[in-house]
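ok so i was messing around last nite and threw this chain in just to see what happens. nothing serious, just curious
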Amino acid sequence: MGLRKRLRDFRDWCPQPPGRLPTKLKRYSMPIAAAVMATLILSVSFFVFSSSLISSVPIVPLVNVQSSTTPAVLWNYSTGGEVFSSPVVDDGIVYVGSSNGNVCALNATNGAQLWNSSGSYPAVANGVVYVGTGFSVDALNATSGAQLWSNSPLTNNLVDYSPSVVVGEVVYTSTTALAGFLFALNAKTGNELWSKSIGPSEFWSSPAVVNGVVYVGTEEYTLNRNNGVYALNAKNGGQLWNYSSGYSVEASPVVVGGVVYFVTDNGDLYALSAKTGLDIWNSALFGVGDSSPAVVGGVVYVGSEDGNVYALNATSGAKLWNYTTGNGTLSTPAVVGGIVYVGSSDGNIYALDEASGAKLWSYNTIGAVGSPVVVNGILYVGGGESVYALRVSPATSASPKPSSTLPIIIGVIVALLIVAIFALLIFQKKLKTKTISPPNAPHSTSISSVQIHKEKMAGE
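result:
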């Protein structure tokens, strides 16, 4: 009986043929029609808006991350000297040094030169380029190349053979020529904060600054062969510990997960505790080590002068794989998107599978290839006397995954229809529960609109 009554009430409430609509329902016919029309208008508007919004995003056909084909060359620029520094990319500008003693600033999109200045091994931070120029450290405006300040920390000591490192408002730079000093300079003024000498040695590697500690490799020519890595307090230069490897450390150390990784010039790869300097493990790579290691996902990737690129377990030092190039590999690998990019003295830049070391592709340049850097899907690298820009993977900001608008449109339409239905149900409830009181009656009697409608129909 309950179901039958509900069906009867629904039938009585439903719109009747013309001329027989309930009086109360007629009163709400215009709001109901307006709600339906608003639903249709909003649905169509959303469709037009969402379609135009998504279609306005440029979808650029790019080389797939795991592609085995040669990537597209966007541009190359001849510097006039061998490019020995890794390019630095910041705010749409590529900074690179070469053997002719100049630092060039290039447009990252098309390779056009913006400015050039004396110096080598650029470091960029907060709109300032820091370079070594013979016996001084110079700070240049990153946009114009104009000199901001210059400081000669120690007469007759070269500071242009290793890149400076900028952390916060401090520039850490080192000197060579048999009087190794590490300097900390104020990044804004160039004023010296502190300096540290460790005896008759040269700093050929740039320092690594992590958690308030400066880690730097040394090269000594004394008979005791006290070469290795030093850990210094970043605030005052005080020595925390040093590790003697017996061979020079010319490539910059890398600190990841509380471990210092570095390679000696006899080809040994070391892992030390960053806190104590104690040896965790070391592995012989059988080649002179001028490549800084790259540590990603628990794996150490490093090049060797024996022509190999090695992958080792970062915890144990066990070799996972190696790939042999045509000549010495002095390049520091760049690991991005499951691919290891590394340059070789055979003139090629290689792309290797991160897990297996299998070759995906190689690109030949004119001359030995240095350390690559990958920014927004573009690989920048020096090869011989030129800088190359290669498209190697999708740019995350310019190539979003295309998505269909149909599910969105359907969802919005359904939501709006549900709102309209709820509005109609509210009107129905109001019609059923509204009371009518006879005039001058002492007590009002509740009569539903459906009952009134029935009585009128019976009277007719």
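not much to say yet. The longest strand covers residues 72-78.
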